[in-house]
């Protein structure tokens, strides 16, 4: 396991600023050590941020109603009997949500960076830290609500018969793993 991790991290480490300078030098000086340490620190911060967002996605406590239902319906368009217009409108809903999600995720990342800066100060201003944490949680809540709204709009596009089929399909274990349809364009 450790050797596998080394082979994954080594190319990344060599691509960090300052690493090439270290390799070219016979005897690294303290400046090179500082650059390498800073590069590793930057890499660690990026990795923690990426891993944190990934973990948030996995553990966001999504309920059944928050599954990627629109994508699931589109993957199973034939089984549900979706019309071309329904497919087009669902794809528009999904695209609009994805754009909104990207924007909101960027806002969350920026707010997290602001919070990190507050927490790295010699003396933490608790009022500012509390306000920033509340801002971050509001942004996350807004993103979650946007997702729920998009899903509900997608379900509204279905006929009664299609909704019944969807409820039946949701109980099937392989519903979410059905193959993806070919995308046009």
Please give the oligomerization state of what you see: single chain
Indicate the CATH architecture of the domain at 84-175.
Up-down Bundle
What is the N-to-C succession of helices and strands?
HHHHHHHH
Structural class: mainly alpha
Structure keywords:
8 helices, mainly alpha, disordered C terminus, Four Helix Bundle (Hemerythrin (Met), subunit A), 185 residues, 0% strand
Explain the overall architecture.
- The chain is an all-alpha fold and 185 residues long.
- It has a domain at 84-175: Four Helix Bundle (Hemerythrin (Met), subunit A) (Up-down Bundle).
- Helices cover 75% and strands 0% of the residues.
- The chain is built from 8 helices and no strands.
- The chain has helices at 2-15, 19-24, 30-58, 69-75, 77-80, 84-119, 126-156, 160-170.
- Helix 6 (84-119) packs antiparallel against helix 7.
- The protein is elongated and about 70 Å long.
- It starts with a helix and ends in a 15-residue tail after the last helix.
Summarize the structure.
It is built from eight helices and no strands. With 185 residues, it is mainly alpha-helical. It has a domain at 84-175: Four Helix Bundle (Hemerythrin (Met), subunit A) (Up-down Bundle), CATH 1.20.120.
Outline the secondary-structure elements:
Layout: H1 2-15, H2 19-24, H3 30-58, H4 69-75, H5 77-80, H6 84-119, H7 126-156, H8 160-170
Helix pairs in contact: 6-7
